[in-house]
Amino acid sequence: MLSDFVVEGSLPNRFRELWDEIAPVGRDAGSGGYLRYALTEPELELRTWFRSQADRRGLPVTEDGNGNLFAHWGDPETGDAVLTGSHFDSVPHGGAYDGPLGIVSAFLAVDELRAAGVAPSRPLVLAAFVEEEGARFGVPCLGSRLLSGALPAERAAGLRDAAGVSFAEALGDQPAGARPDLLGRFGAFVELHVEQGRALVEADEPVAVASAIWPHGRWRFDVVGEGNHAGTTRMADRRDPMLTYAFTVLAANKEARLRGAHATVGRVAVEPNATNAIPSKVTGWLDARAADPETLAGLVDAVRGKLAERARRDGTAVTVTEESVTPLVAFDGALAGRLATLLGAPVLPTGAGHDAGVLAAHLPTAMLFVRNPTGVSHSPAEAATDADCAAGVRALARVLEELTCR
Ligand code: GLV
Ligand code: MN
Ligand code: MN
């Protein structure tokens, strides 16, 4: 059933209208960034918005039992569907575009195709994946990992947020886990995403096609020492985990620079977190990325070595836990080349993770990037002009037409 939804106005204006509907949801007035954690109130509001947009266009919505939403142009049971979409959730105080741009663009691309009288011969499915950033439950691309079976349902169910709420509790049920029946109905996936760097600014192009995602992962390191009084404990008598932590942060930065890789410690938890107490425990999270798996493994080994060496000097005890690892993703080269030729767009690798990286192991997958004038992401400074977002929608519509009509 097609709705009587009418498309009016220029594409940049229609983009702005739709964008303004979601712009206030989860925005922090202080930072101007977004707090849209998976399955919390702002993200639930965006999921309701997804359903209403699908409804306006006569696209029935289904769920996969893992928190991922799908809107269908065509019979949901028919195979060889082309999937497009992204995620609503954000990192703490994240930008507006990382994720939602891919979903808003998917709805507008459907409008473009319908306005042009395109009748796809393959079903088109729009997706909103849950917990892509891992900002609430710690594992990025949780929804696509569950759907594809990369993460067992039991492990996901037990992941807990900072308040102790489990993923199963937030979802309201045990996650369904791998859905090969559903995944098998998708013949291709295209995720449109804001660029998270300045390559398109430098190339003076609005849109690019992705070639690869660097291998990357998250390692938690717990450093346990001895809590004690800051004023009375002699320096020589201390077992201070903050020293081990601080040294490790500096070592990670140095080891990454030596290898042309990336290492970040952007999250830390201190116990008891008191100004006048030597901490009893410090936990840091290392985010490490490199162009190839060998370099990444070398970087993580080197950081582990420095951590262990420093812990011996400080009299602290350390444990390192691998929380998630995403291998190198080389997107389907033939598909990327075909889309780059179709769009006349450059082809770029990225160091950022995406649901497209997870699904690429299961079906031909491509990504489109939209220029970001600041080049900044995971921050309120993330940006894209309405004109470039419209160019992204046009590019996505052309790609979807190419894939669904040939
Ligand atoms: C997700 O955006 C990531 O790369 O961490
Ligand atoms: Mn992100
Ligand atoms: Mn993203």
Helix content: 25-40%
Low-confidence stretches: none
Which fold does the CATH topology of the largest domain refer to?
Aminopeptidase
Architecture per CATH nomenclature, i.e. the level-2 architecture of the largest domain: 3-Layer(aba) Sandwich
Radius of gyration: 22 Å
Number of domains as seen in the coordinates: 2
Which kinds of small molecule does this entry bind, naming each only once? glyoxylic acid, manganese (II) ion
How would you sum up the global shape?
elongated
Structural class: alpha/beta
Q: Strand-and-helix sequence, N→C?
A: HHEEEHEHHHHEHEEEHEEEHEEHEHEH
The major beta sheet can be summarized as:
9 strands, mixed
The CA-CA distance between the termini, in Å, is 23 Å
Content of β-strand: 15-25%
Would you kindly provide a written description of the structure presented here, covering whatever features stand out?
- Helix 1 (11-22) packs antiparallel against helix 3 (100-115), helix 3 crosses helix 13 (386-405) and helix 9 (241-259) packs antiparallel against helix 10.
- The protein is elongated.
- 36% of the residues lie in helices and 22% in strands.
- The chain is an alpha/beta fold and 406 residues long.
- The chain contains 13 helices and 15 strands.
- It folds into two domains: 2-214 and 328-404, Zn peptidases (Aminopeptidase), CATH 3.40.630.10; 216-326, 2-Layer Sandwich (Alpha-Beta Plaits), CATH 3.30.70.360.
- Strands 1, 2, 3, 4, 5, 6, 13, 14 and 15 form a nine-stranded mixed sheet that branches.
- The chain starts with 10 loop residues before the first helix and ends with a helix.
- It binds glyoxylic acid and manganese (II) ion (MN) (2 copies).
- One manganese (II) ion is lined by residues 87, 98-99, 132, 193, 354.
